[in-house]
TrEMBL record:
Source organism: Neisseria dumasiana
UniProt keyword Nucleotide-binding, yes or no: no
UniProt keywords, alphabetically: Cell membrane, Membrane, Protein transport, Translocation, Transmembrane, Transmembrane helix, Transport
Similarity-based family: Belongs to the YajC family.
Protein name (database record): Sec translocon accessory complex subunit YajC
GO cellular component labels: plasma membrane
Length: 97
């Protein structure tokens, strides 16, 4: 009867082997989701930092315009002749060539 107890104890995997699938999922999650998002965020911040007066931009709302004034927190963007709007820096989705 004691022999069966030792056999049952030997059949249980150790803690590291039982956590291996969870660790693998976390590593895959990091490389497929988190890391690309961080790269995209850094590229977007760099693009916003180098915007200057006269650049054509696409806003997150879908409007396309030209940067007329740059301040620390806001851009003034002309979306039509004589129509200027003030938007936050993060409202700029991309720079248009």
């Amino acid at each position: 009867m004691i022999d069966f107890a030792y056999a049952a104890d030997a059949a249980q995997p150790n803690f590291l082997m039982s956590m291996a699938p969870m660790i693998l999922i976390i590593v895959v999650f990091y490389f497929l989701i988190m890391r690309p998002q961080q790269k995209k965020f850094k590229a977007h911040q760099a693009m916003i930092a180098e915007l200057k007066v006269g650049d054509k931009v696409l806003l997150a709302s879908g409007f396309k315009g030209t940067v007329k004034k740059v301040s620390e927190q806001f851009f003034t963007v002309e979306i039509a002749r004589g129509v200027e709007v003030e938007v936050e820096r993060n409202a700029v989705a991309s720079k248009v060539a």
